[in-house]
Design goal:
alpha/beta, five-stranded mixed β-barrel, four-stranded parallel sheet, 14 helices, binds iron/sulfur cluster
Length: 434
């Protein structure tokens, strides 16, 4: 969601006449899009903001001082406080006030006034904001914002607000526009995409949205993120039925222990999660499953952690994002007493990471010798004759090109790649002639 918001910020700044530059040193305006899901991201941001003070504005800049703006979740949460804490920050905006950024920047340029706006504008999506997409062939498509789930550890419902869905017509029209413009892959975005439409009385739900977007003729369709309690049988069936829906699903389970799941307020059990996995694998045997896991939630015992490890092996994830529990002020979990010693959590975390890597390798190994349809995203950083792209299961693929093929012309197209080598984090092979 932040990446997409950043694309919209880029689009709005370009509409003001700004151009994108690769480094802070060259920039007259710097906009930080922020995340406060875990403390580490916050610490990094505050470090970066503080060090901006020591980076002088470029020679020849019309400004005596660089304009620094902070947006996103930390902007939403801290508002004016950021202006007090960082006298060299001029603009603060929140998750619902993206559209007010150009006006604030203009005022800042003309009168040097420092401002913050964390108001909630009526249109949560501001869909007519200009967007500068990072790639011509891929588009993020936000279908809803906010989250009503209030998992006990999570700050998102407080900084992104309640669930708000766009209308199905609005989303499908935008998808069709992308298809007509040559976009190959659309990724639907929302904190909780499975509850799309639930906040609009009588509105079509997520499975219907998937069907309608499939019918636009899009080549590849993906979505993030799903909550296990809301994953319906209709959405599971879509993996079998819809031509464009790629065989990859991100389904966070967070913990394999029912006791911890309850304390996390996740509203499902381990058995329910596993029953979803069984249905999904039946509907789509080639499905790649990825997940999020939190280690060291208050009160987690070795037995609870063992249940998490067992889940990892039982499901056979292609990828898992592992996080050390980070207390977030204002959430119920931050009040829980039985926090764990750092060393124990770190040791569990390291064990889990090793396990996840083994599973990722096992998943990738199954691709050995197969030919996969790879959407070419660019050129490998290490070798200009090697392309980098994604398989339907979202694996990173590197592939050597025959001499007569032009790599630049292949970017954004789908090519067959025969896989010769499999690693934990990527596959490599050779582009086959179509
Ligand atoms: N501590 C650690 N991980 C967290 N996540 C969300 N909140 C926290 C927290 N307080 C993780 C969850 C979620 C992912 C986006 O971030 O696993 O799925
Ligand atoms: Fe946070 Fe996701 Fe839970 Fe919503 S469903 S509260 S975004 S972890």
């Amino acid at each position: 969601m932040n990446k997409h918001d950043a694309e919209r910020v880029s689009g709005m700044l370009e509409a003001l006449g700004a151009v994108h530059v690769p480094t802070l040193e060259e920039a007259d305006i710097a906009v930080f899009m922020t995340c406060c899901v875990r403390e580490a991201a916050e610490v990094r941001l505050f470090g970066q903001i503080a060090s901006c003070k020591n980076v002088p504005v470029r020679t020849g800049s019309p400004l005596a001082q660089r304009i620094i703006a902070i947006g996103g979740c930390i902007g939403e949460r801290d508002g004016d406080e950021l202006l007090t804490r960082f006298p060299h920050v001029s603009v603060v905006f929140g998750t619902h006030s993206l559209a007010s950024l150009p006006g604030m920047l203009k005022r800042c340029l003309s009168d040097r006034v420092r401002q913050s706006d964390t108001s909630d504008t009526a249109d949560a999506f501001s869909t007519d904001l200009p967007t500068k997409r990072e790639h011509a062939w891929a588009a993020w498509l936000p279908i809803m914002t906010g989250c009503d789930n209030f998992c006990s550890y999570c700050i998102v419902p407080y900084v992104r607000g309640r669930e708000r869905s766009r209308t199905i017509e609005d989303v499908v029209t935008e998808a069709q526009r992308y298809v007509d413009a040559g976009v190959k892959e659309i990724t639907l975005l929302g904190q909780n995409v499975n509850s799309f439409g639930r906040d609009r009385y009588g509105a079509p739900r997520f499975a219907e949205l998937l069907q309608r977007i499939d019918a636009t003729g899009i080549e590849r369709l993906r979505f993030v993120t799903s909550h296990p309690k809301d994953l319906s049988d209709e959405v599971i069936a879509a993996f079998a039925d819809l031509r464009s829906l790629m065989p990859a699903l991100h389904l966070p389970f967070q913990s394999g222990s029912d006791r911890i799941l309850q304390a996390m307020n996740r509203s499902y059990t381990r058995a329910h999660y596993l029953s979803l996995i069984a249905k999904l694998k039946q509907a789509c045997p080639s499905l790649a499953l990825s997940t999020d896991i939190i280690v060291g939630f208050p009160g987690e015992t070795e037995e609870d952690f063992g249940a998490t490890c067992e889940m990892v092996c039982q499901v056979g994830f292609s990828q898992a994002f592992t996080f050390i529990y980070s207390p977030r002020s204002g959430t119920p979990a931050a009040q829980m007493r039985d926090t764990l010693p750092r060393e124990i959590v770190q040791e569990r975390f390291d064990r889990l990471v090793a396990l996840v890597q083994e599973e990722a390798y096992r998943f990738n190994r199954a691709a050995q010798g197969r030919t996969l349809a790879v959407l070419v995203e660019g050129v490998s950083k290490r070798d200009a004759r090697v392309l980098a792209g994604k398989s339907p299961q979202n694996q990173t693929v590197h592939a050597a090109l025959p001499d007569d093929l032009d790599i630049e012309q292949l970017i954004g197209t789908i090519v067959p790649v025969r896989i010769d080598e499999t690693k934990t984090w990527y596959l490599s092979g050779e582009v086959m002639r179509g």
